[in-house]
Design a protein that fits this description.
2 domains, two-stranded antiparallel ribbon, alpha+beta
């Protein structure tokens, strides 16, 4: 009956616990990412608006006038209306460059969004495995406290019959109290991680163990932030070329139809005025700026220098990304070795503790040796947990540096 009650109490927690995949999925819907997504959509809509602005433009208008003194040129009152159709036939090549500029901006904004998603995913991954480390360290500390409580209870009996001294009991008690303080610190660390994940995901979470990061050995790609910089450089290059189109001829077509209705009070004015009541005017207009005191040239130089500046930054970031990738690979290899070292340390510390504990309980060594062996065992177990979880974080960082979307490589262990 008790077993059923325990299962009933724990089942809701199990049902609503989040794996690392769940946590990342939740975090990728936070307000910061949604804001960046809206920025991408904003540029896309702006691009649509610009493209439509280059289509033929149709406009209508009209006016009613009433004058105080009628003349042959101005009827007592008149009404006119027009329909105007205009189209930019050639704008010096600026239109095509404008399209290319927006396309580069959109690509850059999409890469920025992917970069943000990767950064958020890496943050969640680090918090997830830190949580697992703290939980494992807490488990090791609870076992240490259990052993200390057992020894304290045993020595208390020996003190009552005079077979041990108070200083040995106090030493055990002091170590026990320190372990309890460390346990509280681990609880605080666990709660801190949960609160930080709540901040990132926007909701309270319960963490489920079993997630890991998969590592593949396919070809490296450019990181999203580097791709974004490449598109930004391309945009600045296009914008610089676009400035020079101001020196090219501009050709527009225009067709305007106008209707006139003039009402004269004087028959004399009405007879002398034009009897045309409608007019259609078609025109081809050419404008060509021949001289502007070097204004266009100066604007181009400024834009071109901005392009050169962004190009230099791109080269710097590419070199830095290459170094970061090499460091990530080395960090990955070292993290793997640390696991083997920590596993060996756990085996050694466990064996030593078993031997020392046996000798201590038989009076062959003092409690100083016992406490050191117990501490070494607990620390070794904590170090192993830290090494294993740090290895997962290093794997995630390696995939990021290889230009992959980190969230796509989060897997679930099938026990």
């Amino acid at each position: 009956m008790i077993k059923k009650v325990v299962i009933g109490l724990t089942l809701p927690i199990l049902l609503f616990s989040e794996s690392l995949n769940d946590l990342i999925e939740m975090s990728l819907k936070n307000k910061n990412i949604m804001s960046t997504q809206k920025s991408v959509e904003s540029i896309q809509e702006e691009y649509k608006s610009v493209k439509k602005g280059y289509l033929p433009e149709l406009s209508i208008g009209g006016a009613y006038t009433d004058v105080s003194h009628e003349t042959a040129s101005y009827a007592n009152n008149s009404l006119n209306a027009y329909v105007d159709l205009s189209y930019s036939l050639y704008d010096g090549g600026k239109k095509d460059l404008t399209y290319k500029s927006y396309e580069s901006q959109i690509k850059a904004s999409k890469e920025d969004l992917s970069t943000l998603k990767n950064e958020v995913s890496l943050d969640v991954i680090e918090h997830y495995f830190n949580y697992l480390t703290y939980v494992s360290q807490k488990d090791a500390k609870l076992k240490e406290i259990e052993q200390l409580n057992a020894q304290h209870k045993r020595l208390s009996k020996f003190l009552a019959v005079g077979t041990t001294t108070i200083d040995e009991l106090d030493r055990i008690l002091s170590t026990l109290e320190s372990a309890k303080v460390e346990l509280h610190e681990l609880d605080l660390n666990i709660q801190t991680v949960l609160h930080e994940l709540e901040y990132i995901t926007g909701q309270r979470v319960n963490i489920d163990v079993g997630s890991y990061i998969d590592v593949i050995n396919d070809e490296n790609e450019q990181r999203n932030d580097i791709k974004s910089l490449e598109h930004s450089v391309q945009t600045k290059f296009i914008d610089a070329k676009s400035v020079k189109t101001e020196d090219n001829p501009q050709i527009t077509l225009d067709n305007k139809f106008t209707y006139y209705d003039n009402n004269y009070n004087s028959s004399t004015y009405e007879t002398s005025a034009s009897n045309i009541d409608r007019q259609n005017i078609f025109s081809v207009n050419l404008t060509w700026k021949l001289f502007d005191f070097g204004s266009t040239k100066a604007a181009y130089e400024a834009s071109h220098k901005s392009f050169l500046s962004s190009k230099s930054k791109l080269e710097y970031e590419k070199n830095k990304a290459s170094v970061d990738l090499n460091l990530a690979k080395k960090s990955f290899d070292i993290a793997k070795l640390k696991i083997k070292s920590a596993q060996a340390a756990v085996r050694a510390a466990s064996s030593t503790y078993d031997v020392v504990k046996n000798k201590y309980e038989n009076g062959l060594v003092d409690n100083v040796s016992y406490l050191e062996a117990l501490s070494d065992k607990s620390n070794a177990q904590s170090s192993l947990s830290l090494a294993e979880n740090n290895f997962e974080v290093r794997k995630a960082n390696l995939m990021y540096q290889k230009g992959k979307n980190v969230w796509e490589y989060v897997k679930w262990k099938n026990y």
